[in-house]
Amino acid sequence: MKKEELSARLKAREAELIAIRHDIHMHPETSYEEVRTSALVQEKLTEWGIPFEAGIAETGVVATITGNRPGNRSIGLRADMDALNMVETNSFAHRSTIPGKMHGCGHDGHTTTLLGAARYLKENPDFAGTVHCIFQPAEEGGAGGKKMIDEGLFERFPCDAVYSLHNKPGLEVGKFITRKGPQLACADSWTVTFRGTGGHGGAPEKSTDTTIPLAHFILGLQAIIGRNVPGLESAVLSIGIIKAGSSHNVIPAEIEVTGTSRCHNPEIRDLLERRLRDVAEHSAAMSNCYADIDYQRGYPPVVNAPRETEMAIAAITALVGAENVDGDSPPINAADDIAYMLEMRPGCNVMIGNGKGDAFKNNHMPDYDFNDEIIVLGAAYWVSLVHQELNAAA
User: Fold this and answer.
1) I need a labelling partner for 83 at 20 to 30 A (CA). Which of 30, 97, 120, 145 fits?
2) Mean pLDDT value across residues 312-337
3) What is the structure's pLDDT at 4?
4) Distances in Å between the alpha carbon of 138 and those of 60, 277, 352?
5) Tens digit of each residue's pLDDT (9 = 90 or more) over 216-232
6) Which CATH topology does 187-299 take?
7) Confidence category of residue 394, pLDDT binned at 50, 70, 90
8) What region, left, alpha or beta, does residue 55 occupy, with left being phi > 0 and alpha being psi -120 to 50 degrees?
9) CATH says 3-183+301-389 is which class?
């Protein structure tokens, strides 16, 4: 099918898709609480005659569409459904109606684009093989992708490859980016607790002062990046929380510092953890204090497979032209739990431009919103990808 005809057919459903997106945005649900969102997805799939299974990883849904041409290959298309625990400051009509929750990362749009594509593929099944549309819960820290895998996702819905699509503010509408190999970072968290005796602020010589190891630790942490991580590798160590003290004249007996580690290389991930432990322990020892270190490994890096990345680039090129896709975009230090699926199956994560300029705020900002203008384009990408992967005549 010609790209103009594809776009026209999807455009005819644009108003309905925007209404679905606004409905989801107004009723945000966070990790594993996506009951209403999941029900809406199931309602639309039922209305459009698309078979599905629900209740996977609590609120996840997988819809299956089979092409009308012979073929044994199957692929997964994944969209996340959950919102964030944050207060929305937008004033438009479809703003969040749930206090303290909002769709601050565009998962309302991701869900909608996949619904639009699923409907189109059901009505136009000119492809050879099977498409599994994976509506995943709990991407925002809940590892919903891993939970779906643990509950037999790929055994119940065999996929030779799996793909995901994420919006990117700051990138112009109509443009896409991706890359072969590591694209998004791991997301590890850690807490270091420095323990000493504490004491009177006027008599520090009578105490073991936890603020000194804290100071050494903060400076030493950044030296790990500058002096242990090779210059051609990327890595970040950032502190987000420091808890200590009860009075201006009391040296705290305990200081807790919490932060995150981000990198794209498993060997660098090991190095960051090892050196962070070294710096914390030795900083404490210099001041006769102790350091307790709790290092938690979170999402692994998102690593795109070469062949599947080429498939994604070909799908985008067929849709918007080669000049509108950057197939070697630099790695990004954000994380996404599509990483777990990409550890199990080859695939590719693509980012679609959400708009450029002051009107388009970054993900996780209180005045962010998914751009309705890219719903049809995102759905068209999914369809174009199916045509590439499952050998349909485009």
Assistant:
1) 120
2) 97
3) 86
4) 9, 30, 21
5) 999 999 999 999 999 99
6) Alpha-Beta Plaits (3.30.70)
7) very low
8) left
9) alpha beta
Rounded-to-integer distance, Cα 199 and Cα 133, Å: 60
3-class secondary structure, 207: coil
Terminal C-alpha separation, the chain: 4
How far is it, in rounded angstroms, from Cα 168 to Cα 370?
A: 9
Q: Which of 279, 339, 314 is nearest to 391 (CA)?
A: 314
pTM above 0.90, yes or no: yes
Tell me, letter by letter, the H, E, C secondary structure of 62-121.
EEEEECCEEEEEEEEEEEECCCECCCCCCCCCCCCCCCCCECCCCHHHHHHHHHHHHHHH
Render pLDDT for 239-292 as a digit per residue (tens, 0 to 9). Answer: 999 999 999 999 999 999 999 999 999 999 999 999 999 999 999 999 999 999
One-letter identity of residue 268: I
3-state secondary structure of 169: strand
Among residues 164, 132, 161, the alpha carbon closest in space to that of 61 is found at 132
Closest CA to 21 of 7, 37, 42, 43: 37
Average pLDDT for the chain: 96
Query: Quick count: other Cβ atoms within 10 Å of Cβ 15?
Result: 10
Contact 9, 17 (CB under 8 A): no
Burial of residue 200 (number of CB atoms within 10 Å: 0-12, 13-18, 19+): exposed
- Cβ–Cβ under 8 Å, residues 23 and 115: no
The Cα–Cα gap between 73 and 61 comes to 21
314 has pLDDT over 90: yes
242 contact partners, CB below 8 Å, separation of at least 6: 214, 255, 256, 257, 258
Total residue length of the chain: 394
Task: Give mean pLDDT, residues 180-188.
Answer: 97
> Residue for token digits 């005659």?
49
Distance separating alpha carbons of residues 272 and 290, to the nearest angstrom: 20
Q: Tell me which amino acid residue 355 is.
A: G
CA–CA distance, 318 with 5 (Å, rounded to integer): 13
- Domain extent listing, the chain: 3-183+301-389, 187-299
Residues 6+ away with beta carbon under 8 Å from 5 = none
Sign of the dihedral through C-alpha 49, 74, 146, 84: negative
- In this structure, what DSSP letter does residue 330 have? P
